[in-house]
């Protein structure tokens, strides 16, 4: 069974390129060229150097004594939070901005939820000297104000998306509209494994540096070739796609995706698209979306702005259907508790997104010999206010 | 070769008269307005009408049409309600009607069932901007044909000659030429698109060409008519009916565009 995208841009029944004709030439230009650009030795050398010297890769695989004792297995944290920019997002933005330059584009547009992708895009653009416009939901701009300030300091223009739920979905709509209106010079740097083919595959390839490093780190730390479990959070699913990538064909590795259940799957305030979603078409691909019976897209809810998206990447919808990945729902409170515990006991403040992956540990029964990797996709500096509000609400 | 013999769209384009078309959003400004609007527009001399199916996340649209979608959804518009309204209006009018909208609501309705309902309600064409040509050919072409529904596709200034030919071959009724690469209701000028309109004219396309997006004035309409068969007005009309339907005002608006 192949988990790679097929020649038509599909993972099983999911994926494709459902874009209006106006975007067809741009998407087609990227589709025709992306593989040869990514495989070009000069491109690879430039990307590798930047990942090493600028991003700070490789990121450590850290054995968490606290989590290992708590869960009775060897638990390791893949420290993507130590990447320059504070999350895994920069693995992808450096790659895509380099691709944009190869295609002769002179302007970058991006969407952002929590601001992590926006900051990572703004950094890549500052470094590689391209002007950058980032769309961000008005609600998210409030709850992630420090990231807005960062993007502005980095020279990016931050434009509020004020339609709909004023979160990631609406920021994505606005970024698409900007792209439609500036086709000839603009490249859209999509932040997750979503969007029209070839974006999901291209982003997965850029993020696959995570699992590629694990292929070397796991044996040297544990003596076994592969981990028994890899756990990551999913919104659109980019850090999960990158963490799973090199293990997809190794069925002995159990893969677990933590989805944001918000206030609970049945609460009406959730973002767990594999549980609550139905096959549909939005933002260029056919995948699972939370929607009404009439096909209107529902607003997602999660305490984590980065997971607050009503859909999931087509690769993940496929991995879900063929049961290669087990999806577990994690509520806001479970994530905040797990993040607070790690902060107190290990001295690591995780992004609330990543805290969902930590909370998923509670939903698995491990054997004492198990080697478990949790992708700590980002750091929690941006989430201090949410953490402190939560902790004072519990007192 | 046109496959659809009894299609109203194909019939109206048999004469060479330059045509005018209006886009409206179903269920806007009020849920039941669609029926009256269509009747008024026919009386005012509009040659064919596009009816937008409102969608929560239409990426092709600018602020004016987006807002009309939002209000139409708040009014409770659904495809089911729209088909009921269209069945009523079809008894009263003879001009062609085209449904237009994002794929997802059609996909959830069931594509085949949607086409059947179109046919029963007297709809003549269907335009789904985010339906790829490849998917159309692979999965859906037959549903259009069986229901006498013209598949309408968009082309843009960036569409290559080769692809224009392929789209023209697959499409029927007319080709929807987007005046510039933009969302609806942008401020781009018609005159900047003259090379592109010239190219469309020179290609000897099988289908008539109708131009839409950013057409606001009589001058715009005349400019478009100089090259192609029809002009489609969307955002400017939606702005016009923002505060409700006034038959006299609508007739003046249409008169102002064509006379």
UniProtKB/TrEMBL annotation, chain A:
Recorded catalytic activity of this chain's protein: (1S,2R)-1-C-(indol-3-yl)glycerol 3-phosphate + L-serine = D-glyceraldehyde 3-phosphate + L-tryptophan + H2O
SUPFAM superfamilies to which the protein is assigned, alphabetical: Tryptophan synthase beta subunit-like PLP-dependent enzymes (SSF53686)
Gene Ontology cellular component annotations, sorted alphabetically: cytoplasm
Residue ranges occupied by any Tryptophan synthase beta chain-like PALP domain in the UniProt entry: 56-378
Family: Belongs to the TrpB family.
Subunit structure: Tetramer of two alpha and two beta chains.
Protein name: Tryptophan synthase beta chain
Organism field: Dyadobacter koreensis
Automatic annotation (TrEMBL), chain B:
EC number, UniProt record: 4.2.1.20
Cellular component, GO annotation: cytosol
A single MF term (Gene Ontology): tryptophan synthase activity
This protein's record includes keyword Protein transport: no
Enzyme's top EC category: lyase
Role according to the record: The alpha subunit is responsible for the aldol cleavage of indoleglycerol phosphate to indole and glyceraldehyde 3-phosphate.
Family: Belongs to the TrpA family.
Designated name of the protein: Tryptophan synthase alpha chain
């Amino acid at each position: 069974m192949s988990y790679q995208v097929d020649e038509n841009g599909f993972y099983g029944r999911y994926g494709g390129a459902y874009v209006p004709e106006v975007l067809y030439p741009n998407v087609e230009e990227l589709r025709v060229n992306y593989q040869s650009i990514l495989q070009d030795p000069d491109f690879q050398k430039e990307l590798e150097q930047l990942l090493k010297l600028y991003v700070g890769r490789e990121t450590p695989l850290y054995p968490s004594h606290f989590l290992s004792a708590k869960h009775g297995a060897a638990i390791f944290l893949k420290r993507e939070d130590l990447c320059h920019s504070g999350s895994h997002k920069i693995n992808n933005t450096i790659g895509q901005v380099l691709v944009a330059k190869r295609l002769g584009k002179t302007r970058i547009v991006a969407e952002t939820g929590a601001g992590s992708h926006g900051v990572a895009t703004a950094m890549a653009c500052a470094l590689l000297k391209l002007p950058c416009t980032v769309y961000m939901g008005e609600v998210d701009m409030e709850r992630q104000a420090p990231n807005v300030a960062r993007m502005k300091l980095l020279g990016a223009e931050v434009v509020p998306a004020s339609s709909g739920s004023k979160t990631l979905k609406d920021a994505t709509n606005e970024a698409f509209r900007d792209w439609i209106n500036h086709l000839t010079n603009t490249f859209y740097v999509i932040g997750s494994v979503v969007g029209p083919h070839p974006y999901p595959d291209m982003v997965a390839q850029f993020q696959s540096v995570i699992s590629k490093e694990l292929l070397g780190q796991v044996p040297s730390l544990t003596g076994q070739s592969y981990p028994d479990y890899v756990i990551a959070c999913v919104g659109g699913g980019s850090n999960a796609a990158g963490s799973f990538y090199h293990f997809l064909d190794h069925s002995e590795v159990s893969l677990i995706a933590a989805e944001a259940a918000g206030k609970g799957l049945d609460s009406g305030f959730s973002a767990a698209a594999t549980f609550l979603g139905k096959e549909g078409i939005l933002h260029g691909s056919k995948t699972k979306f939370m929607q009404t019976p009439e096909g209107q897209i529902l607003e997602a809810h999660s305490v984590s702005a980065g997971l607050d998206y009503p859909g999931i990447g087509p690769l993940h919808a496929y991995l879900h259907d063929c049961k290669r990945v087990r999806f577990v729902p994690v509520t806001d409170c479970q994530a905040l508790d797990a993040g607070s515990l790690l902060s107190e006991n290990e001295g690591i403040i995780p992004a609330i997104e990543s805290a969902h992956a930590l909370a998923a540990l509670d939903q698995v029964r491990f054997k004492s010999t198990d080697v478990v990797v949790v992708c700590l996709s980002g750091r929690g500096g941006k989430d201090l206010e949410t953490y402190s509000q939560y902790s004072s609400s519990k007192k | 070769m046109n496959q659809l013999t009894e299609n109203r769209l194909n019939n109206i384009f048999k004469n060479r008269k330059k045509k005018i078309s209006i886009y409206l959003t179903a269920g806007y400004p009020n849920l039941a307005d669609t029926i009256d609007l269509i009747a008024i527009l026919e009386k005012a001399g509009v040659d064919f009408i596009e009816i937008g199916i409102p969608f929560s996340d239409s990426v092709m649209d600018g602020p004016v049409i987006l807002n009309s979608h939002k209000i139409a959804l708040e009014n409770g518009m659904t495809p089911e309600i729209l088909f009921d309204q269209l069945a009523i209006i079809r008894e009263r009018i003879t001009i062609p009607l085209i449904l237009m909208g994002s794929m997802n609501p059609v996909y959830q309705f069931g594509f085949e069932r949607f086409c059947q309902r179109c046919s029963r309600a007297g709809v003549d064409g269907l335009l789904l901007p985010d339906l790829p040509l490849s998917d159309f050919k692979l999965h859906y072409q037959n549903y259009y044909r069986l229901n006498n529904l013209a598949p309408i596709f968009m082309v843009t200034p960036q569409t290559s000659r080769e692809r224009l030919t392929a789209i023209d071959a697959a499409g029927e009724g007319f080709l929807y030429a987007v005046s510039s690469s933009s969302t609806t209701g942008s401020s781009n000028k018609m005159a900047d698109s003259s090379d592109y309109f010239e190219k469309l004219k020179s290609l000897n396309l099988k289908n008539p060409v109708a131009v839409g997006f950013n057409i606001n004035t009589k001058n715009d309409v005349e400019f478009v008519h100089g090259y192609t068969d029809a002009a489609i007005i969307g955002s400017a009309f939606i702005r016009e009916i923002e505060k409700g339907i006034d038959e006299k005002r609508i007739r003046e608006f249409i008169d102002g565009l064509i006379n």
